[in-house]
Write a structure and sequence with these properties.
Strand content: over 45%
Low-confidence stretches: 1-21, 322-335
CATH class of the largest domain: Mainly Beta
Helix content: under 10%
CATH superfamily of the largest domain: Kelch-type beta propeller
Number of helices: 1
Distance between the termini: 40 Å
CATH topology of the largest domain: Neuraminidase
Mean pLDDT: 81
Number of domains: 2
């Protein structure tokens, strides 16, 4: 069920590429207006509060983000408030249902300060660095529903109380931020190493990865507006401090434009050129804004704010368009298909990638908006695995085509997929 109750979120129909999974959340995102909010009425009995026997508190308070898994189309969040037991909840976008998930170990039941120590990679692995004895790092595989404790080599971060954890794809590493110390955990070697130190608050630190610019913004924390840019080479660069404290509350990044956003009672956007933050909207539920965390959904070009309040999920759309790298997934007779194009929009050459899990008959071509075939890219059989092709925005005669909207049409064993791209001057 979709309910619109904010004047700024008047709904109109947006023509997009054909969705390859249909859900309440994807249908809502396709109809949203730029700078609009839309609440999602969800179901399920997940425990959004926790208690130490003296009272209940939402698990989302003093946290910053939840994690979207593009493999299984679900939102994952593990958290707890001050000295209370931890809960692990998941939202299934296909069924519109919240549910409780299994915790990795009994120590999570004794409580602590989970805050923002959760991250997810692009292969369906969800990570959580707990504050338990020895600071164990756990990995949850969303495809098998199993937890594994990861061996940690090197010097572990000194503390994870009020810390932030995030995944940096180009580094193939988890980045840990706490009290001015920035560390990375190399997921290939399972080794911690120091990136450096930077000025920021003592705790409640934040981080968000930019999928467009391929860098991370991190810092903030208790009473601090100081933020830093971390690039893929491990270089930290301070940016102009914000005029307000950026403690936990919803630092995130728009998947379409790469604009960083921060949620307080207002929603602020960062202009990286001037390094200034400006208010772009109000968070609709100001009385409970601290109990919502941010979760970008790149496939849909929106940000979900999930939490404990009038609605368990609020969608926000900052800009029109599709994400710069959009993965499309669907199961076809047991053959799971993954698709991405980068960049999008394009002005010269784009790399188109897809993978299949079994030997398949494949037809792949580019079509215009009126259905005319522009160029056949592949027609034949392909083995299981990942396949990539470059397209230089030309037709079958290698002539440059005019700017406009085009569609990649991919047929796998008779099942058709469509993905929109935009060619700019």
């Amino acid at each position: 069920m979709i309910r619109s109750f904010f004047p700024v979120s008047l709904i109109f129909v947006l023509i997009t590429s054909l969705p390859l999974f249909s859900s309440v959340i994807s249908d809502a995102a396709a109809r949203m207006k730029v700078n609009g909010w839309l609440p999602i009425i969800t179901t399920g009995d997940a425990r959004f509060t926790t208690s130490n026997g003296t009272g209940n508190m939402p698990i989302f308070v003093w946290a910053n983000k939840a994690c979207w898994d593009s493999i299984t189309d679900q939102i994952l969040f593990m958290g707890c408030p001050h000295a209370m037991p931890t809960n692990f909840v998941a939202y299934d976008a296909k069924t519109n249902v919240w549910r409780d998930e299994t915790l990795p170990a009994p120590e999570y039941s004794v409580g602590g300060h989970a805050y923002d120590a959760n991250a997810i990679d692009n292969e369906g692995n969800y990570y959580h660095l707990t504050t338990g004895s020895g600071n164990p790092l756990w990995r949850y595989n969303t495809k098998t529903d199993n937890w594994t404790m990861i061996t940690q080599n090197g010097t572990k971060p000194t503390s994870s109380y009020g810390a932030s954890l995030n995944y940096f794809p180009e580094m193939k590493s988890l980045v840990h931020i706490y009290g001015g110390k920035v560390s990375r955990f190399n997921l290939t070697t399972n080794t911690w190493s120091s990136i450096g130190t930077a000025s920021m608050g003592d705790y409640h630190n934040l981080s968000a990865y930019n999928p467009v610019g391929k860098f991370m913004l991190l810092g903030g924390g208790n009473g601090s507006g100081q933020m830093h840019k971390l690039d893929s080479n491990g270089t930290l660069t301070a940016i102009k401090p914000a005029s307000f404290a950026m403690a936990v509350g919803g630092l995130t990044c728009d998947p379409v434009t790469g604009t960083f956003l921060f949620k307080g009672d207002s929603l602020y956007a960062l202009n990286m050129s001037t390094q200034n933050w400006s208010a772009v909207n109000k968070f609709p539920l100001t009385s409970t804004s601290s109990a919502y965390v941010a979760c970008p959904i790149s496939e849909l070009g929106v940000i979900a704010f999930v939490g404990y309040g009038t609605y368990s999920c609020l969608l926000y759309k900052y800009a029109e368009g599709v994400s710069i790298e959009r993965e499309v997934k669907q199961s076809v007779d047991g053959n799971r298909v993954m698709f991405s194009s980068f960049p999008n929009p394009i002005n010269s050459t784009t790399k188109i990638s897809f993978s299949v899990e079994k030997n398949s008959s494949v037809y792949f071509a580019v079509y215009s908006a009126n259905g005319q075939m522009i160029k056949e890219i592949y027609n034949g059989r392909l083995g299981a695995g990942h396949h990539s092709y470059n397209w230089n925005a030309t037709d079958g005669n290698e002539k440059r085509i005019v700017p406009g909207v085009y569609y990649y049409k991919l047929t796998i064993d008779g099942v058709k997929f469509t993905h929109k791209t935009v060619l700019i001057k």
